[in-house]
Specification:
2 domains; 11 helices; Annexin V, domain 1; about 70% helix; mainly alpha; two-stranded antiparallel ribbon; 2 strands; single chain
């Protein structure tokens, strides 16, 4: 009977060790990924329970995802997404919504938003978020609402430009819903004037002239502004 030499025994033992080590790595990695999947599922389920609380970050996050999914129709429900983002009261709240979205769907909110929207639509949504206050400040009873800031005027101007730059496939067009949303948010006629100044500073173009060139029914939209107080 042939016996193995010392060298052959050492080689065989080394192979066994390598096979054992490889198997251990596979098992360890498998355990890691399984464990991570279980943990992520538990976090998602926990966050899902919070979606039943009105105006919670999880509720906003779920509404955003539903706007992306658009009941199975092609594209994103952009008017609904715009409405949701306008409702979120502050940048701090928006950060909480973004964190909740990550927990629920294991994907970054802003990445999904960029994937779902045209660049002009994405720029509009960013402008909505950027115009928000850092956090909610309680207003004393009887005090008038705060006057819009220079940042707000600039962000309204950016949203107007994004609305004018909208395209429908290969055809240029205007996002009329976006224009109406901006005009509705403006509290006064003066706010429109200040936004037009910011628009000119940003784009070296007259906002009212661009509105006229983009929309045949521009006068109907201007009635939203003229119906507001001057200051």
């Amino acid at each position: 009977m042939k016996t193995l030499g010392n060298k052959e025994k050492e080689d065989f033992t080394l192979k066994e060790k390598l096979l054992y080590a490889g198997g251990t790595v596979v098992v360890t990695l498998g355990t890691f990924f399984l464990g991570r999947k279980i943990i992520r599922g538990a976090v998602s389920n926990s966050e899902e329970k919070r979606t039943f609380d009105e105006n919670s970050p999880a509720t906003y996050a779920k509404r955003i995802k539903m706007a992306f999914d658009n009941d199975g129709w092609f594209g994103t429900n952009t008017p609904e997404l715009r409405k949701i983002l306008i409702e979120i009261p502050s940048k701090k709240a928006m950060t909480q919504v973004s964190n909740s979205y990550q927990k629920l769907y294991h994907s970054p909110l802003y990445k999904d938003m960029a994937d779902e929207l045209q660049s002009t639509e994405y720029n509009e949504m960013l402008a909505i978020v950027n115009a928000k206050p850092d956090r909610i400040e309680k207003r004393k009873k009887g005090n008038a609402p705060n006057k819009p800031t220079a940042t707000q005027y600039e962000d309204w101007a950016k949203r107007m430009k994004a609305a004018f730059d909208k395209s429908y496939g290969p055809f240029p067009g205007t996002d009329e819903d976006a224009v109406k949303a901006v005009f509705t948010e403006m509290p006064t006629q003066d706010a429109f004037v200040e936004t037009a100044k910011a628009y000119f500073k940003l784009y070296n173009s007259n906002m009212l002239d661009d509105l006229k060139s983009e929309m045949d029914d521009w006068q109907d939209y201007m009635k939203i502004i003229t119906s507001k107080p001057q200051k």
